[in-house]
Design goal:
12 helices; chorismate mutase activity; binds prephenic acid; five-stranded mixed sheet; about 40% helix; about 25% strand
Length: about 350
């Protein structure tokens, strides 16, 4: 039988380890401050955030981790450590779909850590505006949901925006019914973002068939409205329930399990290759026979993996479409670079929306 170590002894050990960790954290923070001075000496301006480096740091932690902490927990800790180090170098501001408590804010914290300053704006268009006018160096926008498909506002804006995609992050989306009402029968209106209303369509048909459904700019805006009126409910995340102090009437009301939203980070910065990247493109082929086949050929020829393709109206003519394509790899990786050169010759328009590290967790 192994001897049991007395609690007092274990706590002493924990205290000593905590002191060591604190010392190491501060040594790391000093290093980050030194990095900032070096960047300034090299004449670097703007933000000190480096999505490529952050992704490499987090992947290395995943590789080094021997447990018993799960990889995801170890990554989360280091995510926060880097976030705090970056805040010491220079605080970072990120525009998100506000108000406080939206899934977009949750995505911003997951990607940048909690030392980032999140700046709420009212619409997806305003997120792009805030970054294009350099009010914020980065913005987080939803791009695709596993239940409801693409967020067309985001794709339409990407088509014309000069911004680059610098990163991606996924959030497992749990929807909840929040209200001050005591009974479902007292709820006359359910507010939420149109995507969230759609993700809970069957639940609403079954449990609140009498209530009107009204789309608002964000789930958190819906929660704000529900907090002001007893006859109203909101569909939103738990974060919004906390911010607006609303009771959760029913948890996890999304129709499809694993309901997940993918967000992208938009900014002016170009990320360098990390070995595990994605590149997003928009392509227009024109309505010619065999055009689609020709468009896909370079990916097959150069062995580039296509992970997503979506068509959207081009807004240039009736039934004229553009294709949003995600491929594996960075635009500077040899196979991708060759495929893009070949693709450019075969299509009417090719816009590279960005190459960025794949989400680490
Ligand atoms: O390596 C850098 O360029 C740093 O600024 C350091 C650091 C880090 O803490 O590891 C902090 C912020 C950057 O986004 C990336 C990494």
């Amino acid at each position: 039988m192994t001897a049991i170590t007395p609690l007092a002894e274990l706590r002493e050990k924990i205290d000593a380890l905590d002191a060591q960790m604190l010392d190491l954290l501060n040594q790391r923070a000093k290093c980050a401050q030194e990095v900032a001075r070096t960047k300034m000496a090299q004449g670097e301006q703007g933000t000190f955030y480096r999505p490529d480096r952050e992704s490499l740091v987090l992947r290395r932690i995943q590789e080094l981790n021997q447990g018993p902490l799960p990889d995801e927990t170890a990554i989360r800790f280091f995510r926060e450590i880097m976030s705090a180090c970056l805040a010491l170098e220079k605080p970072l501001e990120v525009a998100f779909l506000g108000p406080e408590g939206t899934f977009t804010q949750q995505a911003a914290f997951k990607h940048f850590g909690h030392a980032v300053k999140t700046v709420p704006v009212a619409t997806i268009n305003e997120i792009f505006n805030a970054v294009e006018t350099q009010l914020c160096p980065f913005g987080v926008v939803p791009v695709e949901n596993s239940t409801e498909g693409v967020i067309s506002h985001t794709l339409d804006r990407l088509l014309v925006s000069p911004l680059k995609i610098c990163g991606e992050v996924e959030i497992r989306v749990h929807q909840n019914l929040l209200s001050l009402a005591e009974n479902l029968a007292d709820i006359t209106t359910v507010y939420s973002h149109q995507q969230s209303l759609a993700q809970c369509r069957q639940w609403l048909d079954k449990h609140l068939p009498h209530a009107q459904r009204a789309a608002v700019n964000s789930n958190a805006e819906a929660a704000r409205l529900a907090a002001a009126n007893k006859g109203v409910a909101a569909i939103a995340g738990i974060a919004a329930a906390e911010v607006y102090q609303l009771p959760v009437i029913e948890k996890n009301i999304e129709d499809i399990a694993n309901n997940t939203t993918r967000f992208i980070i938009v900014g002016q910065q170009i990320s360098t290759s990390t070995g595990k990247d994605k590149t997003s493109l928009v392509v227009s082929t024109g309505n010619k026979p065999g055009a689609l086949h020709r468009m896909l050929e370079p990916f097959a020829t150069f062995g580039v993996d296509m992970v997503n393709i979506e068509s959207r109206p081009s807004h240039q003519g009736l039934w004229d479409y553009v294709f949003f394509i995600d491929i594996q790899g960075h635009a500077n990786d040899s196979a991708v670079a060759q495929a893009l050169i070949s693709l450019r010759d075969k299509v009417n328009m090719l816009k590279i929306l960005g190459s960025y590290p794949k989400a680490v967790f």
